[in-house]
Amino acid sequence: MTRHRPKGKGKGKKGTAVEDDRNNDLLDKASFKNERFFAYYKAQKIVPDSEWEDFLDALRRPLPTTFRVAGSREIANVLNATIRDVHVPSLSNATFEDQLIPPPVQIPWYPDGLAWQFNVPKKVLRKQPEFKKFHSFLVFETEVGNVSRQEGVSMIPPLFLDVEPHHKVMDMCAAPGSKTAQILEALHAQDTITSSSIPSGLLVANDSDNKRTHLLIHQSARLPSPALMVTNLDASNYPSIKIPGPRGPKNLAFDRILCDVPCSGDGTLRKNIGIWRTWGPNDGNGLHSLQVRILVRAMRLLNYEPGARIVYSTCSLNPVENEAVVAAALAQNSEFELVDVSDRYPELVRRPGLTDWRPTTDRGCTTTFESYEEFMASSKVDASAKGKLTKGHWPPEESVVQTLNLPYCMRIYPHLQDSGGFFVAVLERKQRPPKSTTAKRAATDEALPESKKARLDEDATVVDAAESKEGSPMEQEPEEPAKTPRAGKESSQSNGSFKEQPYTFISPTDPILTTCIEKLHINPETFPMSNVLVRNPEGDAARVLYICNDIVKSIILNNSYERLRLTAAGTKIFAKQEGGKGTEPQFRVLGEGLPVVLPYIDEKTIVDADHRSLRTLVESYYPLCESLTQPFRKEIEDRSTGSHVIRFHKGTSEVATLTHDLVLPIWKSNVSLTLMIDKKAKSALSLRLFGTDITTFGKEREAAQKKEPSVVVVSADSLPEEAEQVEADAEAVIEES
Ligand SMILES: C[S@@+](CC[C@H](N)C(=O)[O-])C[C@H]1O[C@@H](n2cnc3c(N)ncnc32)[C@H](O)[C@@H]1O
Known about the structure:
Layout: H1 17-23, H2 35-44, H3 52-60, E1 65-69, H4 73-91, E2 95-96, E3 99-100, E4 105-106, E5 115-118, H5 122-127, H6 129-143, E6 147-148, H7 156-161, E7 168-171, H8 178-187, E8 202-206, H9 210-220, E9 228-231, E10 242-245, E11 248-251, E12 256-260, H10 275-278, H11 281-285, H12 288-301, E13 309-314, H13 323-332, E14 336-338, E15 351-352, H14 372-377, H15 383-386, H16 398-404, E16 410-412, H17 414-417, E17 422-429, H18 435-444, H19 450-470, E18 504-505, H20 511-519, E19 532-534, E20 544-547, H21 550-558, E21 566-569, E22 571-577, E23 586-589, H22 594-597, E24 607-609, H23 611-619, H24 632-637, E25 642-648, E26 651-652, E27 657-658, E28 662-668, E29 673-675, H25 679-690, H26 696-707, H27 722-736
Parallel strand pairs: 7-8, 7-12, 8-9, 12-13, 24-25
Antiparallel strand pairs: 1-5, 1-6, 2-3, 4-5, 9-21, 10-11, 13-17, 14-17, 15-16, 16-17, 18-19, 19-20, 20-22, 22-23, 25-28, 26-27, 28-29
The site of S-adenosylmethionine has 23 residues, from α8.
């Protein structure tokens, strides 16, 4: 949702007082009312009268904690099995103050049981030992990205996108990135436990808010992908992306597009309880036009292939932001239709979209209007308010409504399955637009300057020509946006100069790259040497080397990075490591890059290591080689200094049980070894393997916690919500850089 949380969530800030109460588990239900909200939604008949009280009761209850086991499929399944087979049984008979506390349960509609819900008061988490242990497991796994605390309803839209590894996907309003992560996981469905595939598909994750794109990048780094690009543009005006075609450059068309648009967010009332106080009908009214423009732009960017689809979603209950947007976009693009997905995810309880609604600008919501004409004629509405709504805020005429299948939209209400409120619509193209429509739409679009109309006509010709020759026009020429973006904070194109560095491909014979390849025994014949890039205009392999897949490469080579406001592309694989005194700096493989590089490394050069040595490497930062167990010790002592890859085999020893092989990067100095993974990842690994955090970082943290309990780095009684945690982490990252 787009109600950006107040920075720092500071006490005393507007809208936080009630939230603070709620955090203490003290529910003051008297505060949870808003007569405007009641009057408005009763008038919209969003639920039958008989359900109204249940609906309100649910809205007033705290939202259960939900989380998703994230990451590529195999890893997620392994971790999920740990929750199901180890944690849940240990929590099954947990009691607190003589009450049986229910263990977490799997959300029935989420595939493979990877999403969970639990509803446990904080005091239980703090004091009940089994829950406390489970909670710190979640906190650590969240920190390293294996668990994503995400609202249950927010997990729905990516499911209906049906993404496959070869799809070209656009996430138009992506930050902070919880749905982006789900899409990435689908693109990487073929990853194995230890190695990442290089999908042939693409994910362009976009957000118009520059700061939020950095949250998105930070968040997406948890599933590093050579198929990812992040852009910072106004989605309603997203430019066409050029790629080479058989007859010269053509525009890239997407197979799947997610429009999780900015919205008033009143479906999140259960967690953003400040909305109880501030809610008004104009919150949604003001967003309608931007939402329509984003959806219409998505329609123009979508592929013509059968099955290409758009998912439109909001966390708002307001029909003005939901059905009205879908209806208005369909009115402009009659070749699209809503898809009946009622047979998908049958355990997800939902209600059909509305066919009738009554907008208003009246802050008190005492009067709502049946039609635009009635609204415009009303003496109760002043002239400035009349300018705020358009005919599109209302349902189309009855005869048109019948043809739109609005009931195919999905409304999720809090009382149906103890969730937040949400809206999802799935749209597909039912037919190709007739040749003339594309050109006609462009020519009659009065909002466009003459120069653009001419270009659209040209583009239409290009598409038609390409289609008739190729038969199956995978990439068609989308039209230019119908309108220029609204000025204001949502539009970043006008935010002055773009400050990010460009990406430059380096030569496959670049000496730094070839040295990395040689030292790590990577096969240069199969490794995509031509897809390695750096982040500076000179193409200087000074610090970090990245890798991307072919489609990302093609986009970078054929488009101006400034026009796309390209904020991130591909994933890091190698980085410079300063040597000790008197030694030359060398490049090393990065933890996040290893899964991508691993399939190309000569198996024989990966050093086998034992569980005891793993414990030694986890326990201290720079253990001496002589502290390692034979034969691993000899094997590693015989290696040159620098970057190496080691493998711990799955199985049980007296030290640990590994449910799957573990492949990790290390750095060898003259006499010691270092495990080259992030200290939080090391803590999570330690908890997973040894049931306790034995790392130096963990011990320091525990000592600090004992000394000053209020300044703990990670507290066991707070499982950070994804967006919040990512924001905090990313702010630190942004500040550091
Ligand atoms: C509902 S939130 C998206 C949540 C995100 N999909 C997720 O699951 O984490 C809407 C996002 O739209 C962005 N936004 C607002 N106006 C936009 C525009 N014109 N173009 C692109 N993004 C926009 C906001 O910055 C916000 O991050």
